[in-house]
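Following the same procedure, backbone shapes were mapped to integers, yielding the entry below.
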Amino acid sequence: DDGISGTTFLQDRPYGRQLLTDVLSKQLDQVLIVRVDRLAREDLVAQVTYHTFKKHDIELISLEERFDYRTPTGQLMASTFSNFASYERVVILQRFADGRLKNAVNGEWNGGIVPYGYTRDNQGNFVINPETSQHYSLIKSLALEGKGANYIRQQLLERGIPSPSGEPVWSKRTIIYMLKNPFYLGTLKYM
């Protein structure tokens, strides 16, 4: 399943659910994977999957790792591969967290959507976007006048100002988020 975490059980993944349906209805006798970490990146998820395949006499074939899960040695090897996949996932997450913390300590941005009214230059610095910053100024001034998000939304629509996504209609949620975003106060939020 593209874009779905390998820490998610097969029954909670669209193609994984179909695979399980095929396994349980005995439409398959083999499942071919590239590597164990493509099937599961969490040891428990891998073990549950292995057990389900074994229970239904499904041969699990990994193109890059040679093991036969139906044998004790194959079970040990498959478990070792899934443990390494799980370990690798945790190490990657820790490296990301360390990088984000380093960025925060250095006062650097940790990424995400560039706040409305700004762009980024080639050095990664925030630069005011002349056109959209005027729109943000309008939003802020209306809010400071005590106008609510629905009123602001209507004003933006009447003036033909497109939303950050380019749509003609602004969502109330977007306006509230912008008004509460600490970035506009000069603060970068560490996440």
About this structure: The chain has a mean pLDDT of 88.
